[in-house]
Amino acid sequence: MNVTLDANIWVVSLSPSDKRQAICCDLLDEICSNPGITVCSPLLMGVEVFGSIARINRGDYTKINEAKQMMRMIPSHIWLALDNWLTAEASYCATMFRLRGADAVYVATALSNNATLVTFDQEIIDRASTALTVLKPDEWLEMRP
Questions:
Q1: Which of 6, 94, 127, 145 minimizes the number of CB atoms within 10 Å of its CB?
Q2: 3-state helix, strand, coil in the chain (%, to 5)
Q3: How far apart, in Å, are the Cα atoms of 58 and each of 16, 24, 64, 68?
Q4: Angle between helices 101-112 and 44-56 (to 10 degrees)
Q5: CA–CA gap between residue 90 and residue 80 (Å, rounded)
Q6: What are phi and psi for residue 38, nearest 5 degrees?
Q7: Residues 58-109: pLDDT tens digits?
């Protein structure tokens, strides 16, 4: 099973003040404990996650390093470069689904890997779910066997 995690999943998992933190941690724990799940991520994800965490925590590198360690714990993690092909796919997704640039990159990543996209972004859920499976973390955990 392939899954693409939107950057917001990683950011929320490291945000103790966010009421959604527990569900994100449960999701990441499930993925880490199941080698049959492959996470497919655009390289852009690191930029988004580390930048968001740095802004939220005023540059506290402890949280950034924690995020890096969490990403390394995924047993099967494929990183996709934003090359000409993925850029073209993301451009198509941005146009077809009226998405912001980075959001279109996550949709294109999921589509190109036949992955379920997990996000809190309601705009992605509303606009891209006609082309791929897009779920919130609790929905993804509920559908797991």
A1: 145
A2: 60, 10, 30
A3: 15, 22, 11, 17
A4: 140
A5: 12
A6: -105, 125
A7: 767 787 888 888 888 888 999 999 999 999 999 999 999 999 999 999 999 9
Check residue 35 and give its pLDDT.
87
| 50/95 Cα distance (integer angstroms) | 27
As given in the structure block, the two tokens for residue 123 are 């705009």
Q: Could you count the other beta carbons within 10 Å of the beta carbon of residue 115?
A: 23
Beta bridge partners of 50: none
pTM: predicted TM-score of the whole model, two decimal places: 0.92
Average pLDDT over residues 23-34: 94
- Asked if residue 137 lies in contact with residue 118, where contact means CB atoms within 8 angstroms, the answer is yes
Distance CA 138, CA 120 (A): 10
Between helices 44-56 and 61-72, what is the axis angle to 10°? 150
